[in-house]
Write a structure and sequence with these properties.
The protein has 363 residues and is an all-alpha fold. The chain is 68% helix and 0% strand. The relative contact order is 0.06.
């Protein structure tokens, strides 16, 4: 509904309010003040003035519960910011509740290298909002042609997009459901102005939300460029091996040790200069009771980074498994000396655990 005085669009049509006399709250307040300041003429005093219409005194949206959540400013940019904040809040809550119940084995944000980073960011910020919002608008417009109520239109569009987006992993459809519901509401809210107006506002909400999620890819790549200048070997190989290492970590969380072993082997072959790769590889071999291979991997790790307390600590575990308690104690003490203050209590517990084994053991 458009204000007849300033022309600003504020709310969709509301039953009982005549659009021809509607005034937004600021204009209604100004009209009331003007009427109070103008002294009545003799003709005016003879006949009382009719009161201002109800629509001019109160914003019709204020009678609705949801309207109190919307910005008071009629500016579209304020609406976009508020809806984006709601989107981020509800999807974060849905993700926190649903994702732990359904572990997933993919890493959607593990982009490595500028070409991949730019591709992921551009796709998420430009092409994804354009396509999904166009699909949402098409579904809603078809429902409107069928003269379905607005609530039913929004529900159909929300469910259709959630099902389509969760086709590869259905819990993601549940996580994204509140976001599509907010986009449907946004489109229907601004539809009385025009479908193009409603479409672009929904696109901008989607774009701003995705930009907040994917900006860290760009910043992460800038950070990686700074680090890569100090690294040994090919930085492109490092980027590719980092992706493989991330995949091995996800596979370990999912309990897929075979895939973890394969990805770590590929990462080490591609970039054999990262101590963390060898530590993780050594842990797999230790789980397989290949203590000789695990020790070799751990010693390779400490040879690459002799200041890694975790590498020394894990080497101590392997030596303990081999019943070489004296060497295990030495490496545990090195780990304690290198560890951060908040990690030292755990290392000290390990040292205390080894100590009884040294009784009667040759030094």
């Amino acid at each position: 509904m458009t204000c007849t005085r300033c022309g600003r669009f504020l709310v969709p049509p509301v039953a009982g309010i005549d659009p021809a006399t509607y005034l937004c709250p600021p204009c209604a307040s100004a009209a009331a003040q003007s009427a109070a300041l103008v002294p009545p003429s003799s003709a005016d005093s003879a006949s009382p003035q009719p009161p201002l219409p109800t629509s001019a005194v109160q914003d019709p949206a204020s009678s609705s519960g949801w309207a109190s959540l919307l910005p008071r400013s009629p500016a579209p940019w304020a609406f976009i910011l508020v809806l984006c904040a709601f989107d981020f809040a509800v999807e974060s809550l849905a993700s926190a509740l649903i994702n732990p119940l359904f572990p997933h084995t993919t890493t959607p944000y593990a982009a490595r290298g500028w070409p991949t980073t730019i591709l992921h960011f551009t796709t998420a910020v430009v092409f994804v909002p354009l396509f999904w919002t166009l699909l949402l608008a098409a579904i809603i417009e078809l429902c409107r042609l069928a003269r379905l109520p607005a609530l039913i239109c929004a529900a159909i569009a929300t469910l259709a997009l959630a099902v389509a987006d969760g086709i590869h992993w259905w819990p993601h459809g549940l996580v994204i459901l509140p976001s599509f519901a907010l986009l449907s509401f946004s489109y229907l809210y601004w539809r009385p102005v025009s479908w193009k107006h409603a479409y672009w506002i929904a696109v901008l909400i989607f774009t701003l939300y995705n930009a907040t999620l994917y900006t860290h890819l760009v910043m992460n790549q800038i950070h990686r460029n700074v680090i890569s200048a100090q690294l040994t070997g090919n930085p492109f190989a490092w980027d590719a091996s980092s992706t493989l290492f991330d995949q091995s970590f996800v596979a370990r969380k999912a309990g897929d040790q075979k895939l973890e072993f394969t990805r770590l082997s590929q990462a080490i072959n591609l970039y054999p200069y990262n101590s963390n790769y060898y530590v993780s590889f050594g842990l797999i071999l230790r789980d397989r009771h290949d203590f000789t291979g695990a020790e070799t991997a751990m010693r390779k790790a400490v040879s690459i980074d002799s200041y890694s307390w975790m590498a020394w600590d894990d080497l101590s575990f392997v030596l303990y498994d081999e019943k070489r308690y004296s060497e295990a104690m030495d490496d545990a003490q090195r780990a304690y000396a290198l560890a951060y203050s908040n990690d030292r209590p755990d290392v000290q517990k390990w040292i205390d655990y080894i100590h009884p084994k040294l009784t009667g053991t040759s030094q």
